[in-house]
Amino acid sequence: MKKKDLSLRRLLEFRNAWGAWLVFSVAIAVTVILWQVSIRLVEDRTEASFRTQSLQLKTAIEERLLNYEQVLAGSAGLFSVAGGVSRDQWREYTRKVDLDRYYPGIQGIGYVKRIGVRQMADHIASVRAEGVHHYLVNPLGSGPYYYPMVYLEPGTERNRLALGYDAFSDPVHRRAMEKARDDAMPTVTGKVVLVQEELAEDQASFLMYYPVYQGGEVPDIRAERRMMLAGYVFSAFRMNNLIDGIVGLIAPFLDVRIYDNGVVDRENVMYGSNLGSLDNEFSFEMSQTLTTGGREWLLQTRSTPAFDYLASDPRPPIVLGSGVVISGLLFLFVLALIRSRLMAQISAGRYRAITEGAANVTLVMGKSGRVRYASPSSFDILGFDPEKVPLLEFENLVHVDDWPQLQQGFEDSVHAPGKQMPVIRARIRDASGQWRDMEGTYTAMLSVPGVNGVVLSLRDLTQLRAAQSELHRLAFYDPLTGLANRQLFRDRLDHVVRRSRRSGEPAALMFLDLDGFKRINDTLGHNAGDELLCQVAQWLEGCVREEDSVARLGGDEFVVLLSRISGPDAAGKVADGILRSLCQRIRLNDHEVGITVSIGITMIPYDSEDSGTLMKYADLAMYRAKDMGRNTRQFFTPAMNIKAARRLLQQEELAAALESDSFALHYQPKVDLASNRVIGVEAFLRWHHPEKGLVSAQQFIGLAEETGLIVRLGEMALRQACIQVQALERAGFESLKMAVNLSVRQLTDSGFLDMIRQVITETGVSPERLELEMPAELLNEDPRMLRELLVALHDLGVCLILDDFGTGSCSLVALQQLPLDVVKIDHRFIRDIPYNVSATDVASAVIALARKLHLTVVAEGVETPQQLSFLKSAGCAQCQGNLFSYPLDEDALIGFLIRQYERPLIS
Questions:
Q1: Alpha-carbon distances of 445 from 132, 195, 350, 357, 560, rounded to whole Å
Q2: Which DSSP string do the residues of 626-672 spell out, in sequence order?
Q3: Helix crossing, 568-582 with 526-543: angle to 10°?
């Protein structure tokens, strides 16, 4: 090789110096990584500093607010100890507290007194007699109670402006005061502007209220707290005065903002340090929740340019510069090594023309077109020994129709050295005499050392086409039944819709769902289910024409597309034929099972010209067929779409209500007929609907069961009922039992038992006080599973009640074998007593049967004295119904129980 062949330009070509370039690239990559790591370390250190300051700031604010709560608690304790506190005593107390020194941020600490309407005149006179000459209660509402600010210290000119202000008249103050009164805890108001603020200084403020009760003791019951309230001690705060000192001490270079109620909104801004240059120019941000006085504040901290500048570090640029210099030196060193070995590498030019892929055959031809070299892959693909290929006439291996274009491609490549020619397809005969589809390209490398020829690279297309065919089958056909899948069917449906839109010729879409397929799949196994699906696919294909389409969407859902049809009557006849064909028995796993199908039909283009809408309409019609009793067909009607939309809206409302805690329990007393006393209550779920008001459970329980929300809803109801049991115990009703209704969906849920145990543990309720009411249809479930469930519940100690006794298919054997304690007669047997002889006979028989089984009998829905008299004579043990009381909320229930203990409900 001549020296000019080793010029720097050629030496730096990638094919020669790839090793040097690789080393250089790796070195640069390592440099970049180290540079990024150093940047990240600096950022992590900065972020850690930011987070530390943010957390310290939150802790400092919480500690200060806790101190203020303790100040109020001490102030309330002053009233508890002294009973009454005069203005001078209050002033002396606040002077000793030394607010300005120990509690910065408090604008004043005062006392709000509850004043009745009849006490107003005496109250104003007594305050004026104490030296507050212009004292008035304002604003003056309609009563019956007022809550004026009587004391407020220190007695500055500003603070005196607030004396007499009835904070209870302001909704913001009122919500906090009511919560403090009911919970007996210090409570913080929302964002307010203090009455004593001047117009130019109206900054965000809040007040903290602490209730003071008559007698100094905190009543246990909420109703007593409301009656025994004497007033409130309170503190008024200006946010800037409260927070500025903490921020300046802990996080002077952070932009700090506090939002009321946890909502980032301009109206909710409680505090802003305003250190950021622009709202969105920050490197770090952190949001934390401050909880004080029953209210949540969102503490948001952001870094500022000043913070970033102080945290900057010069090390990342140093790492980057050093790495670039070292990478260049390594590149030059490796390049020198490559130059010394370049001569030896040129001799390997031939191997650069050989591809190693198993799907390619590489041939090197001389200028005359004769094969001089064949790659080893020629044996794997064509079956020829690579050493013997040069002895063969290449023209004899090529199909006579394809040889001219191969010859032309060879000549074109010779005239364009180094250029890859267009792809040529040809049939090549392999060693077994079979023709193989192949494609190849010519590249002339006549002047390349070690090659000195024209390279033909051939790729075998046989396996590729087989793979393409298999991919097409997998992409567009159901692997189980061989029917079209959802994607292919959607394309066919789009085509039919477009054609019907142009021509006006109708078509029909049917949505089919097998009735009871899940039961077959669960009992006989998935193999039997797959066999059934394949058979159904064959039956469906036999019911339609060749131009029609049948597809499986998944599971047991099939669709049929009638591409051309005269009208709805013709579509109905086809559907009837499908119903007859599929309504038969089939043998699966030595079991003969019967199947039916429900069909929904929609017409194209009358119902819609959109494929997705048509699929939805057919699905709705199919579900209507299910509701009509199954094994039938239904055409789509607009009413179905309205019903589905309404049901979806109801489902969304129900889910939102569950998230927003819009449900409550009402309680109907249950009376023991022997003692004429209330021995328990049954909990009824109620929904506080924003538009419909109080909604009973009958209107939404069905939807909750269908959507699965019944599991969460039931847990919420059970937990609330257990809490109410504890409240009744504290009120003195230790022996009352609480009955909670359960659905089959709840009882068969896999986590039901664990949920029951968890609720009992967390609420601390005694299991003996809990009664679980189960519907009669539960007896239709798997007997073994049912017995295990009820035995486990019975072992917990809860009372088990069978609801709706006498309805459905109640098995007497099941009643004997299951650990039930109580049966409840359905209200349908009670409502016609005593005017309907059949009703009285049935009720008497049900009561007698239950007593024979040693079960306590409860009658529900008792509304008349005649019904009560009959039930007593028939031997019924307990009753409940509107004759005794309608379902009551928790406050009304307490009053009812107090009254019934004073006198019996019935005589």
A1: 111, 95, 10, 20, 60
A2: HHTTSS-EEE--HHHHHHHHHHHHHHHHHHHHHHTT-EEEEEEEEEE
A3: 140
Mean pLDDT lowest among 34-38, 160-164, 376-380, 726-730: 376-380
Q: What pLDDT, on the 0 to 100 scale, is given for residue 4?
A: 44
Q: Does residue 649 register a pLDDT over 70?
A: no
Q: Can you say whether the dihedral through the CA atoms of 562, 568, 569, 574 is positive or negative?
A: positive
| 28 vs 320: CA distance, rounded Å | 9
Burial of 237 (0-12, 13-18, 19+ CB in 10 A): buried
What contacts 158, CB < 8 A, 6 or more positions away?
107, 196, 197, 198
Angstrom distances, CA of residue 756 to CA of 704, 741, 795? 19, 13, 12
- Phi and psi dihedrals of 580, rounded to 5? -70, -40
Which pair of tokens denotes residue 13? 């070509």
* The two structure tokens encoding residue 216: 């100094």
**Two tokens, residue 770:** 């809990």
Name, in order, each residue with C-beta under 8 angstroms of 76's C-beta and a sequence gap of 6 or more: 210, 211, 212, 233
DSSP class of residue 398? B
How confident is the model at residue 813, as a pLDDT? Answer: 62
Taking alpha carbons only, the member of 133, 85, 129 closest to residue 109 is 85
Residue type, 572: G
What pLDDT is attached to residue 433?
80
The count of C-alpha atoms lying within 13 angstroms of the C-alpha of 363, restricted to the half-sphere facing its C-beta, is 26
User: Distance of alpha carbon 797 from its chain centroid, rounded?
Assistant: 35
Q: Using the predicted structure, report yes or no on whether residue 164 has a pLDDT greater than 50.
A: yes
Contact predicate 425/431, CB 8 Å: no
pLDDT tens digit sequence for 827-866: 787 887 877 787 788 888 888 888 888 889 999 989 899 8
Residues 6+ apart with CB under 8 A from 684: 665, 666, 667, 668, 696, 697, 741, 887
**Cα–Cα distances in angstroms (integers) from residue 891 to residues 54, 222, 518, 895, 897, in the given order:** 44, 9, 48, 7, 10
Residue 554 and residue 563: Cα distance in Å, rounded?
A: 22
Average pLDDT, the chain: 83
Both tokens of 439, joined, read 């494609």
In the chain, % of residues over pLDDT 90: 18
CA nearest to 680, candidates 672, 688, 692: 672
Cβ atoms < 10 Å from Cβ of 735: 11
Which of 34-43, 274-283, 781-790, 866-875 has the lowest average pLDDT?
Answer: 274-283
The span from the CA of 536 to the CA of 582, in Å, is 7
> Order of strands across the sheet with 285-292?
269-272, 254-260, 295-303, 285-292
User: Which has more confidence, 509 or 388?
Assistant: 509
Strand order in the sheet with 371-374: 371-374, 360-365, 453-460, 435-445, 424-429
Pairing assessment for the beta strands 856-860 and 822-825 based on DSSP bridges: parallel
Look at residue 697 in the predicted model and tell me its pLDDT.
75
The residue with tokens 């008792």 is 862
**Torsion-angle region of 105 (φ positive above 0: left; ψ -120 to 50: alpha; else: beta):** left
* Phi/psi of residue 145, nearest 5 degrees: -125, 150
- Of residues 122, 97, 71, the one with CA closest to residue 233: 71
Question: Average pLDDT of 33-38?
Answer: 87
